[in-house]
Amino acid sequence: MPRFSNNIIFDLDHLHSVVGHFADRDAFAFDVETFGPNRGVAHLAPVSWLSMATEGAAIVIPMGHPNGDRLISRATRKKNKDTNKFDQIPAVWAAPPPQLRPSQVWPVLEPLFFSDRLKIAHNATFDLVTVAKYFNDTPPCAPYADTIVQSWLLDENRKSQGLKEITKDYWGHDYDDEHVGRQVEIHPFSKVARYAYLDAKYTWLHWRRFDALLQAEGLDQIMGLEMDVLKVLTKMRLRGAKVDADTLEGLYSQFTEELVEVEGKVYGAAGARFNINSVPQKQKLLYGPKADGGQGLRPLKKTDSGNPSTDAESLEAHPENALASALLEYADVDKMLNTYVLGYMGEEGNPKKPCRIYDGRIHADFVQYGTVTGRFSCREPNLQNIPRPDTDKGKQLRGLFMADRGEKLIVADYGQIELVVLAHYSQAAALVDGFNNGIDAHTMTAAKVFGVDFDEVTKAMRSAAKGINFAVVYGAGPEKVAAMASTSVKEAKGFLKVHQQEFPEIYRFKDAVLRTARTRKPPHIRTLLGRKRRLPGLNYSQKDARGYAERQAVNSLIQGSAADLIKLAMVRLDKALPEGMDLLLTVHDELVTSAPADRADEAEAIVRDAMLGEGISKLLSVPMTIDLKVVDKWAEAK
DNA sequence: CGCGATCGCGCC
DNA sequence: AAAGGGCGCGATCGCG
Question: What are the Cα distances from residue A388, in Å, to A392, A398, A469, A636?
Fold first, then answer.
């Protein structure tokens, strides 16, 4: 095989011989180029290029690229007389060279992609799910390595973990100034060939480099967990979560109607029509002098740029004002309709708002490298911020996510996972005792802070204690605690002082975390399973900047350890689930699994063991708990 | 017209 | 710069 020369495969004999060479190696990197309107939707995107690389060699396989290299007419913009907008006229290229067809290529690759060789990709879930459609919706099998996850474990604070960015940073090579990968089908053949080849080549080079760095930093264990997680995420993405499309249509009508009605209320109260979503206009109308048509209200707080805030908290401070109340109503309906209902349905003819439901299911992208703490993020759409079923609309929206016919959802979430982790690390006696005796953590905190028995804790006391516990985990000050407990700042200071007396171990723990973290180079914490969060700010000389880093450090240890635990639970669950049962969603401390209705009991036991069994519980000195419900709709849990 | 910043808000 | 940690997304607005 040639050394990293641009080796393009045009015929089956060549393909066979190349695949044979790759099969002789333990590991290879691969990358797909997709095209067409669904090029970014992994489970739909058709592949026009596959590139592969291993030690000293890389190849590209074109299979349907539409362009040759000779330019016939360049891209232009033309004014459309009807729409009065510019139409993009793409460049026209000479005919492409004859290429292998996908139906010829993939069967030859099958033995390699389903072998025990290590398959390496950058953002591997995308490539694996993309390739799956050529193999009966089955993704290539493990073992996997993902250079985007490696890059993230090595530097979680990096702005972008994209292949182009890290290649520039680590190798000093900027090879995609023309953004060829964004839309390969508008570029000439040779340019795309070179691009695809470099993607695979650098994926390989990054893997080698990162693998050594991860070992050197003691991050190989957590990388192992993440690669097990990757397999689970690939299955989740392929499966998707079923949504009730008919009910969704109904919600569209209902919310649209309601929005029009509330809009009328807003304009009535304002005395005129205006751009109802414009923050500057709302500021004028709410806080401007009455002489100018404003309401003359007193602002509660300011935005970052110094203007009076129009957020819900500010509007709620004026319950007697009709405009403020109407705007609150409007914002709620607007959010539900535009972010959720239309976010899933999409808008006809709006490429920025595509329909997210494909086969009756939403195939969200749980982003493994999406946070600095180790949690997942989720996008297109985000299924981790669906309204809770506490309100009518929340119930309706969460109720869209339902079990398939003849199936049930098993919804399980960890109880107070962050406080359990805090108890484990701090060994705060009161907290540990509370968890050992199955007492609600906020009630326990309230009893200690207010000096009463557990059964004497009132709602208000528990609510204040909840605020205090949040303050501990997030590092909030007395002002925030006061706001949460709706008391004075002075009283909140008192609460925090008593808390410190009753839970001294927590404060000693925090100090110890920071002391240790500061001595490391660079300053960082390590979570329960060894994940790093680097916090250079811990050594800043400026007090408030350092304080911010200190809050992040403590929170990252707790939040990141909780993330480690649920990731481990996901891997255990996926391994234990038999055919026909699937993990669908993961929401920080919650897992949603589907199973045949007549096997719900079996599924429940599997979920319980995955989340609480020996392999998990041994990691903490405090007992974990879960709240588990078997339901038809997600909204019915809780 | 595309892009980033800002504001605001849904979740854990 | 930041005294509540972590996200993604929609609408607006100003910039190039």
Answer: 10, 7, 21, 10
Three-class SS state of A376: coil
Antiparallel, parallel or unpaired: β A118-121 and A144-146:
parallel
Q: Which residue approaches C9 most closely, CA to C1'?
A: A339
Spatial CB neighbours of A488, under 8 Å, sequence gap ≥ 6 = A482
The C-alpha angle with vertex A240 and arms to A239 and A243, in degrees rounded to 5, equals 135
A475 touches strand C (CB under 7 A): yes
**Cis before A522 (ω within 30):** yes
Cβ atoms < 10 Å from Cβ of A215: 11
A479 nearest nt, CA–C1': C3
Does A263 contact strand C, using a CB cutoff of 7 Å?
Answer: no
| Contact status, residue A362 vs residue A241, Cβ threshold 8 Å | yes
Q: How far is the CA of A159 from the C1' of B4 (A)?
A: 15
- Establish whether the CB of A540 is closer than 7 Å to any nucleic acid atom in strand C: yes
Query: How many other C-beta atoms can be found within 10 angstroms of the C-beta atom of residue A331?
Result: 19
In eight-state DSSP terms, residue A243 is B
Distance A67 CA to B5 C1' (A): 38
DSSP-derived 3-state class of residue A52? strand
Burial class (CB in 10 A: 0-12, 13-18, 19+), A68: middle
Structure confidence by residue, pLDDT tens digits, A26-60: 999 999 999 998 999 999 999 999 999 999 899 99
- Give A532 CA → C6 C1' in Å: 15
Write out pLDDT tens, residues A181-240. Answer: 889 999 999 999 999 999 999 999 999 999 999 999 999 999 999 999 999 999 999 999
Amino acid at A359: D
Give the residues of chain A that fall short of pLDDT 70: 1-6, 78-87
Angle formed at CA A532 by CA A160 and CA A607, multiple of 5 degrees:
95
